[in-house]
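Show me any protein, keeping tokens residue-aligned.
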Amino acid sequence: MKKKLIIGAMALICSIGSVMAQGGMQRQTPEERTKATMEKLTPLALSEDQTTKATSVFSDFYLAQQKAMQDMRASGTMDRDAIQAKRKELADARDIKLKEIFTADQYKKWTDEIEPSLRPQRKQ
């Protein structure tokens, strides 16, 4: 009886650990994504005005991205190419606005270092 109880307790602990490890799988809200992005921009040493403008640009970008996904889910057409095209369109519009806000050095650092780190990494 003790063996069964111990084995059951170990199985419970392992399953709880597994569930906790998968906690990062939840989708972030646009506000959470904006905040996380702004935290990654600290190496750019943005001025207060740049920070305000960039926050607005990222907030608009993530809200538009969320709305586009909701629209595609609602329509029932989850065309991968259409999703990628829409994301590229939104990212291009975002980058045009950021180019106006950032200095040339800041924008280069954004495109070379920070933006690639924002893309979700798929597990192999």
The chain has a mean pLDDT of 83. The radius of gyration is 21 Å. The longest helix spans residues 48-75. Residues 14 and 26 are 21 Å apart (CA to CA).
